[in-house]
Amino acid sequence: MEHDFGEVNRVIMEGDIIRAEDIWAGYGDRVVLKGVNLKIARGEFVGLLGPNGSGKSTLLRVLSGVLKPSRGRVWLDGQPLHRLHAKDVAKRLAFVPQREEVAFGFTAWQVVLLGRAPYIGWWGKECADDVRATQQAMERTDCLSVAERAFGTLSGGERQRVVLARGLAQATPLLLLDEPLTHLDVTHQVGTLSLLRQLNREEGLTVLAALHDINLASEFCDRLLVLRQGQVVAEGTPSQVVTPKLLARVFGLDAWVRVNPATGRPHVLPRTLQVLESQTGNGRRVHVVCGGGTGSAWMGALVRAGWQVSAGVLHLLDSDEEVARELGVEVVTEAPFTPISAESLSLLQEVLAKAEAIVVAPVAFGYGNLANLQATEEAQRAGKRVLLAECNWHERDFAGGQVTELVGRLKANGAVLVRTPEEAVAALAPDGQTG
């Protein structure tokens, strides 16, 4: 222990609010954590990811002081955690467990008020500040309406919000949460993480939360730590961590990773619904006219139904172009931000000639991609079936009325209107079949 003070000074200089070194921990003879090292800087919002049984809950219990490690050390604010009095720890960090057992008869208000125990003591009387902190925490977590109800009568989601409120009422600079979204509906899931990020940004609250939803963790967290079989196997920004390779290695998940255009954060799309053409192909070809993300559902539905699908002309880097390649769809491409060239149009005409039918997704047309719709009309005249997404085409006409006129002629010449990709699959199916 002769190096403790040197280590304290180094941690303080680095600004870590909590740090773990070579943590080994478990229950009885079962070892769960195997040499875990981590550090959380003040003001970070960190997500802890990993499959069930990877050690997330055990790690949080060790960091909070609830579970003593068999080996290794935890530092809190530059001081060895095991040397701090429990009341001092409770003023520096709050731990929101996954499951909470509260004594029978406690109201929700009393449960949240327990978060003020480090300040009022077990036998003391709460003051105005304690009441104010309790009420504010319950308001923030949308559970003030159940304040007078017995905790044991609350639903799972209500209990979860009350326990989170207790952690917030504790008013510590560090908050550790073990699956805080369990039992919450999607509105309260997003609301909870939005609140935590707001407190993180505006009040400097440091957050370490074990989360199951990778997409929500990616959207809200600054940094992600990934556990697998009791060891940290990845850490970094969401863009660095959420990759197809890591998802396959850690979670056994075959998925695409896309970028949310609104936030720039990675988003996971499982491939589980994709049916490979080689396994269920019906030998028939269909072409999809799309762009800007309008065609992904249509292409996916057709691929799953066994169709050999082509698409285009699509500009490189268009989201539909990326999805088409992931689905194994033959795609005619053009350089970004350029009109469709004569060469690309010629390739499109060759593809259309091989297709049995053409599906036009609800894509906006301008002068740059109008040639796709014009080629569709030519193919219809040559005897190709056309399925047209039912939508307000006037709103998608950015070519001086030409789109509206073309769509009108397609309808007049027998184009079938379909509202959904599933309707398109059904309309293309031979008589007596559904797909």
**What is the CATH superfamily classification of the largest domain?**
P-loop containing nucleotide triphosphate hydrolases
Per CATH, the architecture of the largest domain is 3-Layer(aba) Sandwich
Number of helical stretches of at least 4 residues: 18
How many strands?
20
Mean pLDDT: 87
Binned strand content: 15-25%
Shape: elongated
Specify the structural class: alpha/beta
Unreliable runs, pLDDT <50, ≥5 residues? 1-14, 272-280
Biggest β-sheet: strands ordered side by side in the sheet: 6-7-8-3-9-10
* Highest CATH level, the class of the largest domain: Alpha Beta
Percent helix, as a range, is 25-40%
How is the main sheet built?
6 strands, mixed
Radius of gyration: 29 Å
How would you summarize this macromolecular structure in one to three sentences?
The chain is of the alpha/beta class and 435 residues long.
Descriptive account of the structure:
The protein is an alpha/beta fold and 435 residues long. It folds into two domains: 4-270, P-loop containing nucleotide triphosphate hydrolases (Rossmann fold); 277-428, 3-Layer(aba) Sandwich (Rossmann fold). Helix content is 38%, strand content 25%. It contains 18 helices and 20 strands. The strands form five sheets. Strands 6-7-8-3-9-10 form a six-stranded mixed β-sheet, sandwiched between helices. It has a six-stranded parallel β-sheet with strand order 15-14-13-16-18-20, sandwiched between helices. Helix 14 (319-326) links the parallel strand 14 (308-315) and strand 15. Helix 15 (342-354) runs parallel beside helix 16 (370-381) and helix 16 (370-381) runs parallel beside helix 17 (402-412). The longest helix has 18 residues, at 186-203. It starts with a helix and ends in a 7-residue tail after the last helix. The relative contact order is 0.08.
